[in-house]
Specification:
- By secondary structure, the chain is of the alpha/beta class.
- It folds into two domains: 7-150 and 296-311, 3-Layer(aba) Sandwich (Rossmann fold), CATH 3.40.50; 154-289, Rossmann fold (3-Layer(aba) Sandwich).
- The chain contains eleven helices and eight strands.
- Strands 2-1-3-4 form a four-stranded parallel β-sheet, sandwiched between helices. Strands 6-5-7-8 form a four-stranded parallel β-sheet, sandwiched between helices.
- Helix 7 (199-214) links the parallel strand 5 and strand 6 (219-224).
- Helix 4 (97-106) runs parallel beside helix 5 and helix 6 (154-169) packs antiparallel against helix 11.
- The longest helix is centred in the N-terminal third of the chain and has 19 residues, at 60-78.
- The radius of gyration is 20 Å and the shape is globular.
- The two termini are 30 Å apart.
- Fe(2+) binds at residues 186, 267.
């Protein structure tokens, strides 16, 4: 009697990547700069930021590792008729996106799905990941489909709503409408507006969905972590938003919800927890930040749903 072999699907989980230790920061930064080494000043600035958030311990890569493990576990628990095997593919660090695709093929995977640990699509972010993975898959004869965005998935919205409500509760004795809620995401060059890129609209859709569920009207969107490239980036920047909140006496209490980020990385732990927090203190504002999604079961539910949906397409 023959036994039907269970279907195996590879899942390439893509993210920006981060160094594994402080001595890898220069190589990482050089890759971001397309092979051009940073100046000593640029390298010191980035290394100082990492040192400020991690000290002698470097946990950032661990966050992504845990997310990939949790997604694989959830997929196999939820869909026992299929065996899912998750692989990492990083944009600026090893294992690179191409490495992840190659490992799937080496392991005998013939069908795969790619998903990025970022809920909102832009041709300059998620689109770039997909392009690299697709090109490598095509060259190796691997059939691959991709999740483009999942910014309004009910489980994702629920996870973010829980975090905003939890954040608002930290302001004891302060009415909900006395707290200014600012949703943030990584800025991108302004030229995406001319390209009719969906990124800004998707971010606003997520923000509105959370605000409606939480019953908050005192909110806005702000950008953060813009690159220093000599071209205009989307604004207003979160630090400018904080200055406006103070100048216009909009509120004395601010809650930041970084909806564009799904884990504790540099843009959250430094740009918000250190830099924005310092600005808020100087302005006399009380600033709180919502918890990152990391391996929240609701986020894993979101990812498992959107990945599985790709396997059911004709």
């Amino acid at each position: 009697m023959s036994v039907t072999q269970q279907k195996r699907i590879g899942v390439l989980v893509m993210s920006y990547g981060t160094p594994e230790s402080l001595d890898q920061v220069e190589a990482y930064y050089t890759h971001i700069r397309r092979g051009n080494p940073p100046t000593p000043e640029q390298l010191k600035d980035l290394t100082d930021r990492y040192e400020a958030i991690v000290g002698g311990f470097f946990p950032l890569r661990e966050n992504t590792d845990k997310q990939v493990q949790a997604l694989e576990a959830r997929l196999n628990e939820k869909y026992p008729d299929t065996t899912f095997v998750c692989y990492q593919g990083l944009k600026h660090a090893s294992p690179f996106i191409e490495d992840g695709v190659e490992r799937m093929v080496q392991d005998g995977i013939t069908e795969a799905v790619g998903v990025v640990l970022a809920p909102h699509y832009s041709v300059m972010s998620v689109g770039g990941y997909i392009k690299r993975a697709q090109e490598k898959a095509d060259s190796l004869g691997l059939s691959m489909r991709f999740v483009k965005s999942y910014h309004l998935h009910p489980a994702l919205i629920e996870a973010l709503v829980q975090r905003v409500e939890e954040g608002l509760n930290r302001f004891e004795g302060v009415a909900k409408d006395e707290v200014k809620v600012i949703f943030t995401a990584h800025s991108l060059p302004e030229k995406i507006l001319e390209m009719k890129d969906p990124y800004p609209d998707q971010l606003l859709e997520t923000s509105k969905a959370i605000a409606e569920r939480c019953g908050i009207t005192h909110w806005q969107f702000g950008w953060q972590s813009a690159g220093q490239t000599g071209v205009p980036w989307l604004g207003p920047d979160i630090l400018d938003v904080l200055h406006t909140v103070k100048k216009e006496k909009q509120a004395e209490h601010v809650l930041i919800c970084p909806i564009g980020f799904v884990s504790d990385h540099l843009e959250v732990l430094y740009d918000l927890d250190i830099e924005a927090q310092k600005t808020a203190r100087e302005l006399g504002l009380r600033l709180e930040r919502t918890r990152s999604l990391n391996t929240d079961p609701l986020y894993m539910e979101t990812l498992s749903d959107v990945v599985y949906a790709q396997t059911e397409r004709d």
